[in-house]
Specification:
single chain, alpha+beta, two-stranded antiparallel sheet, 4 strands
């Protein structure tokens, strides 16, 4: 595994965490959206991540040796962005009979977005993003030091 592989792995983490931040921001922006194009209130979205496959189509001796001798991954990728349904996270019901989206009993369904949970997720995504950026900085620093040895 070379230093460029390390940068690629961390770059995939940066991309994934940026998408998580975008999704969290979208959830927070729609915390009071009671009507969407699909009908009904906004549904909270979550990013599902998975390890990027290390399999490649090469069948050379070197690629087989590398795959057997190293259990290191090759980064992360976004599997999907999915909406949580009402069974996973029920809508908030607020009594407001004057609201245009109120039901017959006067209750309005608000999105299943919890601001506190979103803030915790935002802090987690920020910290993960910073950690991946630090890995790239450290890798770059190591490469520069290795080049300085030859001087």
């Amino acid at each position: 595994m070379g230093f460029l592989d390390t940068i690629n792995i961390s770059a995939s983490g940066l991309t994934a965490q940026r998408l998580r931040m975008d999704t969290i921001a979208n959830n927070m922006a729609n915390v009071d959206t009671t009507r969407t194009e699909k009908g009904g209130p906004y549904r909270r979205q979550v990013v599902v991540l998975e390890a990027r496959s290390t399999k490649n189509s090469k069948t050379s001796f070197r690629s087989i040796l590398d795959s057997k001798s190293s259990n290191l991954g090759s980064g992360v990728r976004v599997k999907e962005i999915r909406e949580l349904d009402e069974n996973e996270a029920p809508f908030r019901k607020v009594y407001d009979p004057s609201h245009p989206d109120a039901d017959a009993n006067g209750y309005v369904n608000y999105p299943n977005v919890n601001i506190v949970e979103e803030m915790v997720n935002m802090i987690s995504a920020t910290r993960s993003y910073e950690a991946n950026a630090k890995v790239i900085e450290a890798t770059k620093s190591m490469a520069m030091r290795a080049l300085d040895i030859g001087k």
